[in-house]
Amino acid sequence: MEFTAVVRKRRAIRRYAQDPVDKEAFERILDAGTRGPSAGYSQGQSFIAVTSEEMKQKLNDEWTRQMIEIGDAIDPAEGNMFYNAPNLIIACTNEQEYHRRYQQTDKLTLTGAEIPWPAPYWYVDSGCGIMLLLLAAVNEGLSACLIGVPFDVQPWKDILGVPHEVMPVGTVLVGHRSADEVRRDLSHRRKPYTDYVHRDRW
Length: 202
Known about the structure:
Elements: H1 3-9, H2 23-33, E1 45-50, H3 53-69, E2 87-93, H4 95-101, H5 121-139, E3 143-147, H6 154-160, E4 167-175, H7 193-196
Antiparallel strand pairs: 1-2, 2-4, 3-4
């Protein structure tokens, strides 16, 4: 698919059919996610591909438990926290990989110190990888959506066996859009182009 078409077609789908995702297509999507930039080539991004029903159920049950605990509304019509998507990709980042990279000789400041980080680029780079996943899904003729992770992510880390340093930051849903998924027209809410883009100064 032509790049501009992929970008313009991308939208967050929140209802999925139970049709399975082609395994080779899913691998191409995952590979695309690994092609994002990273500060200093720190490569702190990682992804957990979840396709087993047992693992999806465990993750769903824990997230649902937390939502009920805080009194947040859950729409039972949606079926589960993942909108019945057959495939999940949990995007993670490792802040320490960035500190280790920027404590190496070629990255130290002239005073021999690690740079004062103006922004947490470990999250920025994870977002770049997530966007590549979303666009790659569209390119494969599939639908996708980025949702979050539970407020208390430690139980998920325990379920998934995630190392201490690694932090899950978002969940990408991948699958085929359900025929009954309602297409919402949000064009009236979209900010004008001039609100997004500024020239030379704000």
